[in-house]
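Hi R.,

Here's the chain you asked about this morning:
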Amino acid sequence: MPAAQPTQRADQRRNPNREAFWRTTISDRMQSGLSIRAFCEREGLSEPAYHYWRRELKKRDAEQTAATSFLPVEVQLPATPIEIVFSHGTTVRVGSGCDRTTLETVLAALEQRAC
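And the predicted structure, written out as tokens:
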């Protein structure tokens, strides 16, 4: 069962001050060199709350990374090229970007060369 995406209301309930507090706290703990238990005891923090916020912030960072990792792409498949085969064996392949004047000039030159 896929995880539910946060609703707009849930996003509005997020407290940026609380998130900033826990980001700073987790960073401070890593810099302290203390175990999570020792750090939480020293700072008077709940160890389960510390673990919750560490997981939550990791999840939020992953969501943010995923949201910014994909860009919209418009795929345009090229039209099937036209292939013209002359009786003398010359083959001309015309792609979708060829304009009429250029094609007429090339074909006229090939017809003259064949004569």
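Helices lie at 8-13, 16-32, 36-43, 47-69, 100-114.

Let me know if you need anything else.
M.
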